[in-house]
Design brief:
- The chain has 11 helices and 10 strands.
- With 332 residues, the chain is of the alpha/beta class.
- It has one domain: NADP-dependent oxidoreductase domain (TIM Barrel, Alpha-Beta Barrel), CATH 3.20.20.100.
- Strands 3-4-5-6-7-8-9-10 form an 8-stranded parallel barrel, surrounded by 4 helices. It has a two-stranded antiparallel sheet with strand order 1-2.
- A hairpin with a 6-residue loop joins strand 1 and strand 2.
- Helix 1 packs across helix 2.
- The radius of gyration is 19 Å and the shape is globular.
């Protein structure tokens, strides 16, 4: 396992991070969660990423039970704030009151007195950005988080925050990024890099398309994410014939390189120096080890060129297609 510095912080994070979105939030039993977490440590993974909204606290509680048995300095823990945490539609967002409430609730579930990275899960266009920044800074000042980050913010939103608080405010950005979703490369990557902000990318396997489990013209496997009504909205945007055909063209490239499709996809993401870590989920320990193996892989220029040719016009490169692209910035 290789490690990279997270932005301007002093954190050295594993290139592969273990995430808890669709697994430890309720889809995977505690014993499986424990086995995957132990496998992560065995593989050299030291970076664990979750959010308060995953299972409305269930993912944080699971890791609180498991990670609290280990020395606090043996892992780097990240969580997020923004999503709706109860049936009350107002129990969400990035207001000062909500941030103060949610950081304490997260720490209680995680059974720790601080997180290493506290991230704004999305941008909140209904709250003045000055209020959000001051509330996040207070979390750090109180010792409840060491560093701050954001997820899926637009360049306009990032620039507004930097204009107010300067480049030392954030150390990380967490965008969706994969072979099939390349939109952050155009603006978010260079803007972040210029301000000491690393990328921690989510869905580097494109919601599972880059595992190779889906084939053009075939129905998704019945136990797959694409076959789940609750997940169809997330993966549906990517389940196009063009994407499935592109993945099929990648298969022989992975075979020739002696790699799995998963390892090829993760190594491709990690080719970018702006990326500090790729977040992967796992429901079985062997998946953790297989994902971790991608950290040691460097793709040759010839292979990278062949990947570009295989992908063709399939990848999304237009940031305007992101769900948050049209959200504005509220000021005081």
């Amino acid at each position: 396992m290789r490690y990279r510095q997270l932005g301007s912080s002093d954190l050295e994070v594993s290139e592969i991070a273990l995430g808890a979105w669709l697994t430890y939030s309720g889809g995977v039993e505690l014993d499986q969660t424990r086995a995957c977490t132990e496998a992560a440590f065995e593989a050299g993974i030291n970076f664990f990423d979750t959010a308060n909204v995953y299972g409305r606290g269930a993912a944080e509680a699971a890791w609180g039970e498991i990670l609290s048995k280990r020395p606090r300095d043996s892992y780097i823990l990240a969580t997020k704030v923004w999503g709706q945490m109860s049936d009350d539609p107002d129990d969400r967002g990035l207001s000062a009151a909500q941030i103060a409430k949610q950081i304490d609730a997260s720490l209680a579930r995680l059974q720790t007195d601080h997180v290493d990275l506290y991230q704004a899960h999305r941008f909140d266009p209904d709250v003045a950005i000055e209020e959000t920044i001051e509330a996040l800074q207070q979390v750090v000042a109180a010792g409840k988080a060491r560093y701050l980050g954001f997820s899926e913010w637009t360049p306009e939103q990032i620039e507004a925050a930097l204009e107010i608080a300067g480049p030392d405010l954030f150390v990380s950005s967490q965008p969706q990024y994969s072979m099939l979703w390349q939109a952050p490369e155009a603006e978010v990557f260079p803007l972040s890099a210029a301000n000491g902000i690393s990328q921690i990318v989510w869905s580097p396997l494109a919601q599972g398309l880059l595992t190779g489990k889906y084939r053009p013209g075939e129905a998704p496997p019945p136990d797959s994410r694409a076959a789940s009504d609750s997940m169809s909205g997330f993966i549906g945007r990517l389940m196009t014939d063009a994407n499935l055909e592109a993945v099929d063209r990648l298969r022989p490239l992975a075979d020739e390189a002696g790699l799995t499709l998963v390892q090829l996809a993760l190594a491709w993401v990690l080719r970018r120096p702006e990326v500090a870590a790729a977040i992967v989920g796992a429901s079985r320990p062997e998946q953790v080890h297989a994902n971790a193996a991608a950290s040691a892989i460097d793709l040759s220029p010839d292979l990278l060129a062949a990947i570009d040719e295989a992908l063709g016009d399939a990848p999304v490169k237009d940031a305007a297609l992101a769900p948050n692209a049209r959200a504005g910035v509220k000021r005081r």
